[in-house]
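Cross-check.
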Amino acid sequence: MSSTSPTKEVRIKVEYRFHFLNDKEVALFSNVNVGEFHAKPPKGGHSWGLRNIPKQKILNCVRDDGSLVISCHIELLPDINRTQCYNSWKLLNTNARTVSSDFVKRQLAAFDSGFMADCVLECSGKQIPVNKFVLSAHSAVFKAMFSYDQLIESTEKKVVIEDAEYEAVRSMLRYMYTGEMELDTEVANVLILAERYQIDDLKQICERKLCSQVDKNNVGEMLYVADLYNCRILRRAVVDLLRTNHSVFSSHAWRLLKETNPHLVTEVMEKAMFGEESPPLKRQRHQKTIHSQPSDDEST
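Predicted model, tokenized:
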């Protein structure tokens, strides 16, 4: 490789993998190394490769037609000193406070027993007795339902939740009573309910859990959820994955997303390349020019 500047040395760190493939494209011999490639004029380039490979290993990989097929994969390892980083704690801060375990137990017992319940939530044909005060304290949507006598939820003291999983509804209610979320819950289903009923702190907890699960195999699904339910934190996690793991672009999930939602792919790629906040430079200059123009009174 060569430098793009006649006076500047170029250095990149990569992982390079060699595979000797048989007739079935199966690697019978592999070698993985990490090296720094660099070029410094006028001495020319610098190369890396394999040396002193045992002859028998090569013979074992020769195909039936007498050929030897070698596959080489090169992956760029980003320089952490030049890679843009984010303070995740700023994005994931939930202002959480610790409460005693006894308090949680009392609240959970009240929820499970339906103690002093004055309303029921119905989902999938099952009813859950609840307290309207608890729901109203945590959700502006429930508060509006129970505050107006004209609404059927207020007069009949019953709320029917459709298009939701029963266990997800119970997890949402458990959080409103205790401030805790069950670990074995299907997080995405709870997130949908948190968005629907405007329970922002629960939604943020769900986003945090989903962020830890983002990988190249589910990136399409995660991005779809983030876009559909306005999940800023989850969306940032997807963008960060695209910046740091380019193997995502060859995954089946990414190819499927490109086919089904090309506009979303284009938008998130722009975020990955140019950042979440900064508008194009030309637009910045244009706005600055407008703000610097004097008013009619000043010009006179």
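The CA atoms of residues 239 and 268 lie 7 Å apart. Residues 1-6, 85-90, 278-300 have pLDDT under 50 and may be disordered. Passed to J.P. for a second look.
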